[in-house]
Amino acid sequence: MIKIAIAAVLALMGVSFALAEEVAPPPATAIVLALQDAVRTNDKDWFVAHLHFPVRYFGKTKHVIRSKDWFLSHYDTIIGPELKAAILGQDPEDIFKNYQGLMVGGGSHNIWLEDFGDPGGGIPSRFEIITINNSE
Fold first, then answer.
1. Which residues of 75-100 are buried (b: 16+ CB within 10 A; e: fewer)?
2. Which residues 6+ apart lie within 8 Å of 78 measured at CB?
3. DSSP state for residue 108 in the 8-state scheme
4. pLDDT below 70 — which residues of the chain?
5. Could you tell me if 56 and 100 are in contact, meaning their C-beta atoms sit under 8 angstroms apart?
6. What pairs with residue 65 in β-bridges?
7. Which one, of 110, 18, 127, lies nearest residue 58 by Cα?
8. 51 Cβ partners below 8 Å, 6+ apart?
9. Distance CA 31, CA 25 (A)
10. So which residues are the signal peptide here (predicted)?
11. Which of 23, 58, 113, 128 is the most buried (most CB within 10 A)?
């Protein structure tokens, strides 16, 4: 109510202004923020929706994740405390990227995502998890 009154007074005074519009972050930043939110809330459904099978997993053992069911039954081991800390510690604005995709986390605790979209071809970015590293 107060904002409307102030806007009306400014308009009567001949002062024009534009309300700041929220700008969406770049796709790479947005996926890191979404991944961090999924880690914070243990959102297994988010993870399952973003797996690009087969997913390579490097932990105490090497494994190729081929199904949603296997991932869900091993979630607590795959997305362990060290990996969670590395993901949550990632600065979403400072992401390592190369020809293989982008890496969230660091050292031996990280998740690699690849963009399967084609923004130049009119297909929006669609990042999916291709590798999970949670080793010592």
1. eeebbeeebbebbeebebeebeeeee
2. 57, 59, 65, 71, 132, 134
3. T
4. 1-21
5. no
6. 55
7. 110
8. 65, 68, 71, 128, 129
9. 9
10. 1-20
11. 113
Sort residue 78 into left (φ over 0), alpha (ψ -120 to 50) or beta.
Answer: alpha
Amino acid at 34: A
Q: Where are the domains of the chain?
A: 24-134
The pTM for the full model equals 0.80
Please tell me what DSSP assigns to residue 119: G
Unique residue bearing structure tokens 């102030």? 6
pLDDT in tens, 3-41: 444 444 445 555 554 555 678 899 999 999 999 999 999
Distance CA 54, CA 85 (A): 25
Place of tokens 């002062």: 15
CATH of the domain spanning 24-134: 3.10.450
